[in-house]
Amino acid sequence: MANYKTKLKIGEFSQLMQVTVKTLRHYEQKGLLLPHDVDNLTGYRYYSIDQMQKLQNIRELQRLGFSLDEVKELYEDNSHTPNIHQMEEKIKETEAQLKLLIARRDQLLNWKNSLKEMNTMEKFSVQSLPEIIVASHREIIPNYEALGPLCYEKIGPEMQRLNCKCPKPGYCFTIEHNKEYTPTDVDIEYCEQVLEMGTDSDIIKFKRIPAVPKALCMKHVGPYERFYESFIEAFRYIEEKGYKIAGKPRTSYIDGAWNQEDPEKWLSVIQIPIE
Question: Fold for domain 124-273?
Fold first, then answer.
């Protein structure tokens, strides 16, 4: 008696193997899993029972990180499983991807925690500021509105050219060097934290900012021209609590023109060294 071969239509094969028809057609186009039979009149594709195991092998190899091209090469070499060398290479590749994923996860966690801390932070808090390395640029700008364009048109491109690496979520601040308030000709220093010292250029200078053992940190929500309102509150708080000012204030920028159109939603943190 002749052996009867069960033939499954592509839809039936798809349903039984829990693989979409689109995926089966893709495997066919790649020359990886051709239908066992194609009806010349109807164009119907049929698959055999033996091809169930081949499809299972293909999916397992994909789960282990082998691309369809790599799987195809294995079958072309009449080998359905990778050799020791191929497995070792795939393990190395997987370990490298794992390191990248762990680093990405850690950065995202730090970023998320930083945002949570910022959102839940009391209006006033006393914190220590660690020693950091910064890329700094000091310039006399015509007015405060010129700070934004200075950052993304001049400082940002130069830091990119110097291949500066910044920690996530990032920490930047300004220090004003004018001895008195002036709405024009503002002597301002922009500092952005970087992971390592670089080589100075005409625009960027690298330096270490010493730790501040104690600083009053105050959230400021709104445009920069209202900073004075927050300084009034901060200095009153410092006096009420019996602290003394121990250094130049910093202004750290969290949300601004670069990511928030409405100035009323800009978030900054004023940091005043105290003792």
Answer: Multidrug-efflux Transporter 1 Regulator Bmrr; Chain A (3.20.80)
